[in-house]
Amino acid sequence: MEKLRPSPWQATLAYAALAGIMGALASLTFRAGVDLIHYLLTGTHEAIVVTFEDLAWWQRLAVPAVGGLMAGLVLLFGRRLHRGESSTDYMEAILIGNGQLPVKSSLVKSMAAMFSIASGGSIGREGPMVQLAAVAASWLGRWRSFSPPQLRLLVACGAASGIASAYNAPIAGSFFVAEIILGTIAMESLGPLAVSAVAATLTMRTLSDAHTLYQVPAFTLHSLWEIGPFVVLGVLAGIVAPWFLRSLRKAETLFAWTSLPVPARLMLGGLVVGLLAIWVPQVCGNGYSVVVAILNGQLVWKVLVVVLVCKWIATAASFGSGAPGGVFTPTLFMGAALGYLFGYGVNSVWPEGAADPRTFALVSMGALLASASH
């Protein structure tokens, strides 16, 4: 330190890179835990939807219920471990807190999320991955005795690394945290966020088979006439997204109204998902494989309508029951399904207005996510 004499800015970037590496390692550990529990519950390492397609009907019903029960038990008994500890998440720690995140409660929630996700719950894994990455960054900052402003920025770097690790998208991870959480893209914050996200992505690519998440055909604007339907699709996404969020909150209210213990409530949510999975196994998981099928035009629109309705109900049941996890990827699914159905409908009556419904699915993913997250 005496010889090199790094400036405060250089030190900040160095710690941001270290937070990114730690965030990627935390994400890899979480993914490994999910894969292990999935194997113990189903006896296979296949993807969620493929696994449920191969299971007997009673297994499709039982696995999400058992997973929900186990997640609830983890949350119930985990309270004893973090009694008296706050339940602050990374957004609160960055916006209104001092950057300190509780370690024990975050680990308990992440363990419960492993069971919910591995058993086919209709939620995403990005939420726990981001929280764990932010906790790792918070621990690093406290170890180095960072001031509250420095610690908040480092936690934001951890969150960016978590998103980058989940989606293999460093630019998206850094800009998402800058815009949604920090509310600024000033270089003083965006620089460390980008360094952290890139370090996390490089770590993921070095230690795993990380690749572009959504393999899709090349996007092409076939005609200027398509601009009109795209604008209408944006308005439609802006209408649907609030209703989607309201349905999640309504489901949360309904499950709370039952006054069931936490394990029973999460098991009930798993039963709803399992019941739907008997006929529509595509409702299980975060919807990633179905989105890929939509973007590659591999689903008939009639089937997609059924999947969309059932997936909406399954996501509301998983989220409303209190299953820990994220709704980022399920929101992308809703956008893809809505966009493809809209594009297909326009194509049926006006081929020049929507030459390829798959492009409408891709655009709608961004439109619905933008509407839901502002």
Strand segment tally:
0
Shape: globular
Number of helices: 15
- The share of residues in helices is over 70%
Major pleated sheet: none
Structural class given helices, strands, pairing? mainly alpha
Query: Secondary-structure element sequence?
Result: HHHHHHHHHHHHHHH
Radius of gyration: 21 Å
Strand content: under 5%
Instruction: Please report the distance between the alpha carbons of the first and last residues.
Output: 43 Å
Poorly predicted tracts of residues: none
Could you report the average pLDDT, rounded to the nearest whole number? 92
Characterize the structure shown.
It is a single chain. This protein has 374 residues and is mainly alpha-helical. It contains 15 helices and no strands. The radius of gyration is 21 Å and the shape is globular.
Brief descriptors of the model:
15 helices; 73% helix
What is the element layout, followed by pairings?
Blueprint: H1 8-42, H2 48-54, H3 57-78, H4 90-95, H5 103-118, H6 126-143, H7 148-167, H8 170-182, H9 187-207, H10 227-257, H11 262-279, H12 288-295, H13 301-320, H14 328-349, H15 357-373
Helix pairs in contact: 1-5, 1-6, 1-7, 1-9, 3-5, 3-11, 5-6, 6-7, 7-8, 7-9, 8-9, 10-13, 10-14, 10-15, 11-13, 12-14, 13-14, 14-15
